[in-house]
Structure formats: C-alpha cells, structure tokens
Design a protein that fits this description.
This protein has 285 residues and is of the alpha/beta class. The chain has helices at 51-58, 82-88, 105-115, 120-133, 149-161, 179-196, 207-210, 230-233, 237-242, 249-259, 271-284, and strands at 7-16, 28-36, 40-44, 66-71, 74-75, 89-92, 167-171, 199-203, 215-220, 223-229. The protein has a single domain (2-247), classed as Rossmann fold (3-Layer(aba) Sandwich), CATH 3.40.50. The chain binds adenosine-5'-triphosphate and magnesium ion.
C-alpha cells in the first residue's frame, strides 16, 4: 500500500529532458535514489549538473520523461494526488522572495493551510506553533518584504513546516545569507531533522554545509557519480576535483599537508579534526 512504503522519496531510473525525448543530453539520466524518513542528504554537483531539476522532480513540479518518481509510494504522475505529494515534500528556494506571497508573516504561514481547507482553529494553532518553533512570534504582524534575508528564509521554512511535511527540499537555501543568517537557517533545519525526523534534501555549493549531512549525493552531467556517507564522498578529493568541485577547506588543507610529508589521515573533514590531528602529531614529535 502506498502509505506503507519505507522510503519517503524514490527515484527509479528517472530521466528528464527539457526539450523532449529527442534531446541528445538530458538534464537527468537514469537517476536511482531513495530517501528514508529522517535522513539528511546533501545534494552536490557543478553548475548545470541537474540538482535543481532533481528537486523539482521530487516535488512534482516536473514529471520524469522516463522512469518514475514516487513520494510516499505515490507516483508523481498521479495528478489527483499532487496536493498530497506537494504537502509531503515542501520546497525551499534560494531566494525567499519568490516564496513569500502574503502581506504579513502570519498570513503567509496560514496561506498553504487555507489551501488545504483546514478549519480556522487548526490553522491558528499550527501558525502559532510553527512561529514559536522558528522564533518568529515577534514578526507575525510584519510585512515579509521588510524582513532580513535570514528572517525571510525562516518564514519560508515555517510556511513549509506548517504543512507538516515528511521531507523538506532545499535549493541553496543559504546562498543569499550572511554567516549569522546561514548559521541560523542551518541550525533550524538540522534541529527539525533531528527532533522531528523530517527528511531533508539540501542542495549546496558549500562543502562545509554538505559535511554536516549524514549522506551526500553527487551529480555530474545529470548522473549520480557518488552516493554515501559525507565522510566518504567529501574526502574523495580525486572524484570531487574531476567534476570541478572541492572538498572542505580542512580536507583540502590536510591533503596539501600530506603531500608536503605530514602524516595526516585521509578522512579529515572539518577544522576540529584537522586541529586535533595536527596537535597530536606535534605532541608526539
Ligand atoms: N527551464 C529550462 N529550460 C531548458 N533547460 C534547462 C532549464 N532549466 C535547466 N536547464 C538545463 O538543465 C541542466 C540542469 O540544470 P539545473 O538547473 O538542474 O542544474 P543545477 O545543478 O541546479 O545547476 P546550478 O548549480 O547552476 O543551480 C542544465 O544543462 C540547464 O542548462
Ligand atoms: Mg540549481
């Protein structure tokens, strides 16, 4: 039965071409991938590798030209089930301005719920609870366009969250934010993932953000070229460099130090690990 599927999202040999089946190189070619409840997946790849297209397939904004995408066991081709698919897999875009539609934050948070035709009392309760969760209580009466980028992105996340999704799809959600705004949005999403079991697929060009995910999926030219633990995929610098990406700053620096003769392990991913390993070497010499 559809609802009993263990995976929230399944992509079965999915292809997508923007200009019809005759296109010599489709945007996506034969994507096999599934995401379970509670997973946090970073989606990486160079410009034009198909990351945004893949998220749009998961949200049924696009339908595969070949193959199939299932959300909680429901094929995205089932038009009468699209509202359920979109409610289950909410999407956050790079620019929150494209996503905020109402004249106040409060109305914005209620917007999707009103479309679900929920009773007013339920809508009020959910808006209040979501605003509290994301620290937006003081901003409820504000017009969204007067908020900072980080605040707007938190409102966009709250709008998706109010729909009680099983999965949040995020397309470079921190690209326009300063370090504090980025930190706040990342903390919020990781806490939702940890505490509520909401699956997250997070497209990012920041290796440090990808390193925080449990799993990393790398795309190149519309194909999956790596899928595994962040520690494994992001320390495979040969693969990353081959497709025009970089590892984390700590990982790249560790590789340079190794080349220079410093016996550091090859699995270093973050600053803490780099510092700890260098200190251990220094103490032993
Ligand atoms: N609306 C469109 N019409 C035609 N081709 C498109 C369209 N959107 C994307 N493409 C093409 O599909 C391919 C994948 O694009 P996509 O936007 O999914 O890449 P991306 O990995 O998200 O890139 P970026 O890192 O730049 O955001 C690219 O070759 C792109 O030129
Ligand atoms: Mg993109």
């Amino acid at each position: 039965m559809a609802g009993q599927s263990a995976a929230i999202i399944e992509s079965k040999d999915a292809y997508f071409s923007y200009s019809g089946d005759g296109e010599p190189s489709p945007a996506l070619s034969g994507i096999n991938f599934s995401v379970k409840r509670g997973e946090y997946v970073a989606l990486i790849g160079p410009n034009g590798s198909g990351k945004t297209t893949l998220l749009k397939l998961f949200n049924a904004l696009l339908i595969p030209s070949n193959g199939e995408v299932l959300v909680k066991g429901i094929s995205t081709t089932e038009e009468d089930k699209l509202p359920e698919v979109r409610r289950s897999c909410g999407m956050i875009f790079q620019n929150p301005d494209n996503q905020l539609v109402a004249t106040t934050v409060e109305e914005d948070l209620a917007f999707g719920l009103e479309n679900l035709a929920l009773p007013v009392s339920v809508i009020r309760k959910r808006v209040k609870a979501t605003a509290a969760l994301l620290g937006l209580e003081m901003l409820l009466k504000q017009p969204p366009h007067l908020l900072s980028g980080g605040e707007k992105q938190r409102v966009a996340i709250a709008g998706v969250l109010a729909m009680e999704p099983d999965c949040i799809l995020m397309d470079e959600p921190t690209a326009m934010l300063d370090p504090a705004g980025r930190h706040s949005v990342l903390n919020t999403v990781h806490a939702l993932n940890r505490n509520r079991g909401i699956a997250v697929i997070h497209v990012t060009h920041f290796p440090e953000e990808a390193a925080l995910a449990g799993r990393v999926l790398a795309l190149n030219e519309g194909r999956v070229v790596a899928d595994g633990a962040a520690k494994k995929v992001l320390t495979d610098l040969d693969l990353l460099h081959k497709i025009g990406l970089q590892g984390t700053t700590a990982g790249e620096l560790a590789a340079l130090l190794r080349l220079g003769g410093c016996p550091l392990p090859s699995h270093i991913l973050n600053n803490r690990e780099l510092v700890d390993n260098i200190c251990t070497l220094a103490q032993n010499n």
